Batch of 2 targets.
Target 1
Amino acid sequence: MKNKSIAALSLVGLLSACGPGQSQQSLLGPITQTLFGFTKPASKPSSMADIRRQVTPEVRQRFRHTSLMIAQLEQNERASILVRKGLNDGVETYFTPDNISLSLKEGVLISTRGLGFDLMSSDVAEVLTGLRHGGQAVRVHRYLDGEDQIVIKSYICDYSGNAQITETCYGKDHSFKNSYQMSGGTVVASRQWIGPDLGYIRLENV
């Protein structure tokens, strides 16, 4: 499957209902000009620290009615800010400026769109229980193969830790290790495996 390159998406369009005054585009302009999302080339890839420094109190105040997240793909070290656009049945969907989307349930990544080799969907009900209570869980991932047919991968996962939880998963073809930083029972930062082609992504609430 070819890696997709998506045209830049105006953040004003995503959050036009956030209130009057200085536009969201001007507030996030310094951030988007330096990072360009995941797919649009930049002279120097932005790091999570670069973006974190640019999320000023003014930006946080303007986006107080929604959520912002920073994500970084480890394979190319490119980071982006994401804005939450949707909340449906407990699933939060975040978008980058170049229209890549990540969907999460209680902080656990369940799907991606626009990256190429996307994680199409996941079953994580047992994973959520494992993060709360420990023990063992089964997680199921679905991907598209080269003929656009769904391929299902299942993994057995073990959990350890409290404020910093490690999820160690084993499958027939791959194994991986996710980590979750917890605060008050909520995932506030994590390192999660998307799949064998995309590898890991780091996520952080801001």
Note: The chain has a mean pLDDT of 82.
Target 2
Amino acid sequence: MPWFKIDDSAHSHPKFIRAGNAALGLWLRCGSYSAQHLLEGYIPKSVIKPFGGTPAQVRKLLEAGLWHEAGHDCDRCPQPADGYMIHDFFEGGRNVTKTQHEANRKGAAERAAKSRESKKRADSERESNNIQYATSSQMKPIRARNEPYFQGSTAGQEGLSRRTPADGAALAHAAAMPVPSTSSGSTAAAGGPSGSGLPDQLADLKRAIGAAGLSGISWDLRESAWEYTRQAIDRVGVPAMVAFAVNSARLKGQPAGASAWVQGWRSLEPAPEPQLGVSYLPAAVGLPNAVNRQQQEVDDWASRAMSRARARMTEENP
């Protein structure tokens, strides 16, 4: 809406004093009418009488120089075709032209449209995130092969070890590579290259997480979290990290993203070096053949690592 603006010193201007209060009332009403209808200072004669104006008031405004009639000699104001023209209607940018008003209105409409589009996009993203979180929270329980690796209180007693040499081979950890800025994607596309164009150093971990039944995990990690995860792979290996993720999902529920596991992976301790002179028993009592020494070391260390992980998660969520 356009405005008819008056200078704050108008109350003492000589022209206002000369015209008098009655004529100034007509000047004010006609000025606001001209601004509202984008007449750019023009006053039709037809509005004088409806506004309560008199010929004497019009004459005072003309004599004071506040209005002009046709044939005036003011070089700053246009000639009115029929009616009167407010003197210096646009002086100092007090009032806007019709072109300026249309441009302002168009700009305001464009800004409002951009604001609505931005809000709509934000609402859509928020709804998408809510749906993704709800879907991941309602996923089926992790399949049986991801139950605790050892049933009962002690490995090799009251049940058989679920770890097999094939599992260990499937979970071989990735070799060290240059660090890209982020690692994105999900377990459904774990083997692809990262956004940097380099091989994804977390690809083996992603595949192992997916093979363990934790599907739909987001791998949109910050650069620091990505580096912590890569270091954990080098330090403890993929199997220990998968074991931690499986037990964490069982106790707390499956998270939407792998970032929920990063701190736990950082706290994992590496497997101890093999000790000479120590005898190794089969993974389960009653098996006809003993597992090889290296596999026994991995099984025993994994059991201790999972015990520590369970204890740590129990402390965090009593």
Note: Strands lie at 42-43, 67-69, 84-86.
